[in-house]
Every structure is written in structure tokens, then in C-alpha cells.
Amino acid sequence: MNKLTDLTIARALSGLKSKEFSATELTKAYISSAEASRELNIYVEETFDVALQRATLSDKKLKSGDAGSLEGIPVAVKDLFCTRGIHSAACSKVLNGFKPPYESAVTEKLWDSGAILLGKANMDEFAMGSSNTTSYYGSVTNPWSPKGAVKKLVPGGSSGGSAAAVSARAALAATGTDTGGSIRQPASFCGVVGLKPTYGRCSRWGIIAFASSLDQAGPITRTVEDAALMLNVMAGYDPKDSTSVNKPVPNYALNLNQGVKGLRVGIPGEYQMDGMSPEIKQLWDKGIEWFKNGGAEVKDISLPHTKYALPTYYIVAPAEASSNLARYDGVRFGLRKSGDDLQDMYSKSRAEGFGEEVKRRVLIGTYVLSAGYYDAYYLQAQRVRTRIAEDFKQAFSNVDVILTPTAPSAAFEVGANMDDPISMYLNDIFTVPASLAGLPGISVPAGLSSEGLPLGLQIIGEPFNEHNVLISGQFIETAANFDSLPQYICGG
């Protein structure tokens, strides 16, 4: 039997069922791995004692035949998800020490299924960032590093802690949230699978809000099958969330290996952008060849409004953030600083509680919503967003899925682009369009850069057709046969 931390969810569930090992043994293996990887700064709150208690209960359920669908599976949870009585601060100083008296809908489903919480994963503050360097608790270090070089790389963001946890074997799976690529981009940087479901497929209730019309929970795992197993539990209608869609949840893990013969795969010309890394283009071309050889029908498509996606996103998302973050005023909860009057208290509490990137986005959002600029910026951005969604709708009348790169580069060094917000925002250039349209997307590790760093390919699908996305992702996973491990695990 392989080392316990090398197992996938599917293999771990099989081993637990056949009593090859216990949930307690599996959990202890992950606790040891998490403890050994503390230098990566993956967890902002460790819940190892609670995990062992829960593992004991899982062993009893496994013995009695009363096991849930993820019974005994140790997972990390992004710090954006509220967990009852456990640190939930969105990695912001303004919420430091907050322990909610309630559980998010998604994590409630996970615990009901038997999953075990190892801890809260580090992230960019309020999910605002592409590098996991804006966290109040410090940067996360990517388990991967360049060949022959001692460099600390970012894990991507905002779900960088979640992606790093899965990559470094500090969790068997993790939850993330994706607003403009915050599951898919870190998955690409860390060499793991990241799935963003259709907007409305997973409940947002109990997730600390960034941009309410964009935020969507999803899983980060080592394989596509594991992502399907996680989504089976995480998805579903929630009457507490007005944006939750009341649609049946299929068994996403069924028939993943059916192949792509006859599948119509779209290749958008607009994603071939100036300055794209030759390595990214080569990987994309390789992915196209895989699909052709697998019997898929590859078609060129056009998404003409793609070039406006990034500026549209960075108007809509900050506008919603400025509204959502107005609640952190030092009055009801969170950091409170003394002031000469109420207005002064607001100003001092927010100035000290928010980091620089959050302040930047709140200021942008407040500006575009202000009198005299609302029509010129915010309403115009919403109109363009509609055009972007219409582009995708038109494309899906001719194709079943769309194949693109996930990110324009491999992981970059910690500290790079920090003084250039525009360069940092460009990391989301391939992921933002699908987010604006509310579409499902998956990033699958498909190759290595010349420096030995993971690169991902992205599949975008029709609304609520995660199954086609997963089948295509499974096909890429099989074709790529990506079995490389981070240098952190390999010891070099």
C-alpha cells in the first residue's frame, strides 16, 4: 500500500471501506504532514484535536455501516467559509479572532458527509488577490520551486492556501472560492485540479462575501474524479441563499472515463494574446492535439468581447466589494479603534483593519458607484458583462466545451508584481470571462514549464453542465499523465 498521504479521495474511501487503514490513521498521517509543512504557512488555524475526535466518530460509523459519502476524508477549508466556533476571518485584520456561531452551508454538507476538518487555509485578504500575499497572516509559499534554484514562489490566489495544502499533502482535498479565477489559477500554479461550478450551484450562505454576483464555492483536489466526489457533496439548492439554483444534482463521478469522441471543443481565437508565453501556447496546442486524437471535433470560435473582460471585472467586483465590506465599520463586530466621533471611529477602524489591496478595491468600487460616475462606469460594465455572456451563449450553440490555458504563466516569485497591480490583475485574464458569465470551469495540470513548474489547461462548459467539464478534464488528466511532484515533497 502506498503512503497514506499519496492516496486520492477515491482510493482512500476504498481503503477505509475495506479496513486497510482507519480514519484515525489517515487523519494522523495528514496531521503529521501538515505539521511538517508549517514553514509554507498554509494554515491560519489548525484544528487537529477536533479532527482526531471526528476521526474516531468516523471509525465508528465505518464499522457500523453508517458511513457518509466522504466519511473519514481530511480536508482543509478556506478561511472565507464560516465554521462554527472556529476562526473565520477571511485572513483580514478587521476580523481577526472572529469565531462565528454558525456554519456555512457548504461546510455543513461536508461535515454531514463525514469529512474531517484539518484547519482553515490561508488566503488573500477577503479573497482579493492572485498571489496569496495580501493575507494578514503572511504569504503562503508554493510547494513547487524552479529546477536548480532556491526561490519562494506564490501559490496563486486567492485560494492559495487551499491549493498549496492539497499539493503539499497537508490535506487530501480543500474548499476554495472562485470570483475571477481564485480556484483555477492557484490550482494551475500548484499542479492540482481546481473546479469552479456554475454560479448558483453551491450555496454562498455563510461564505464571507467579496463580490456577491461572482463568488462561487468549489473543490481543489489531486484528481478530476476527486473533484467530482467533492462536488457531489458541496452542490445543491439552499433556500437560505437567494442566488442558489433549485436544480437536481447529478452524480458527477459517473462515467468520467467515457472519452471525448464526438465532443465539440471550441478554441477561442481571442485567448491567443500578445505576449503569451510560448510554453503556454505549446501546451494549449498539445491539448488541442489530444482532443483531436481522442475523436473530438475541434472548432475555432470567437468570443469578441473577451478583451473587455478584465476591465469589466475590475469595475464590477470592486463595486460589489465596496458595498459588502461597508459592514466592517467597527460597530457590530471586528476591529474597533477609538475616535473623536462616530465618523472618526469608522475611518480609523477601517484604515487599520483593511490591507492595502482591499483599500484599493474599496476605493475603486466606491468611485465607480458614486454620483456622476455610476452610469459611465458601473452600468457600462454591466452592459459589457451581458455581451460577454451572450458571446459564450452563441459559442455554445456550436460547441460543447471550450479549451483554453488557465493562466498566462507559471507561478512567479514571492514579491514579484507587488508594486504593479495591473500586472497582478493580468493573472486572471483567462479565468475572468467565465466568471463574469457564471459558467463552470476546471483547471487540470497538463505539463511542466522549462523550469519544472506546473502549467494548467482550462475547460469551460455550459451553465450547469459540469459533467461535460469533468469528462473533458478527465480526458486531459489521462492524456497528460501528470505525475510530477513538488520539490517540497521530493526533498529537493
Please tell me about this protein's structure:
The protein is α/β, with parallel strands linked by helices and 492 residues long. It has a domain of 258 residues: Amidase signature (AS) enzymes (Alpha-Beta Complex). Helices cover 37% and strands 13% of the residues. The chain contains 16 helices and eleven strands. An eleven-stranded mixed sheet has the order 1-3-2-4-6-5-10-11-9-7-8, with helices on both faces. Helix 5 runs parallel beside helix 6. The longest helix has 22 residues. The two termini are 24 Å apart. The mean pLDDT is 95.
Output the strand order for the largest sheet: 1-3-2-4-6-5-10-11-9-7-8
Report Rg. 21 Å
- Cα separation of the termini: 24 Å
Mean pLDDT: 95
Structural class of the helix and strand makeup? alpha/beta
The CATH class of the domain at 4-261 is Alpha Beta
pLDDT under 50 segments (min length 5)? none
CATH level-4 homologous superfamily of the domain at 4-261: Amidase signature (AS) domain
Biggest sheet architecture: 11 strands, mixed
**What's the multimeric state?**
single chain
Written as H for each helix and E for each strand, in order along the chain, the element string is: HHEHEHEHEHEEHEHEHHHHEHHEEHH
- From the spread of the alpha carbons, the general shape counts as globular
Helix content: 25-40%
CATH topology of the domain at 4-261: Amidase signature (AS) enzymes
Query: Into which percentage range does the β-strand content fall?
Result: 5-15%
The assigned CATH architecture of the domain at 4-261 is Alpha-Beta Complex
* Continuous helix count: 16
Total DSSP E strands: 11
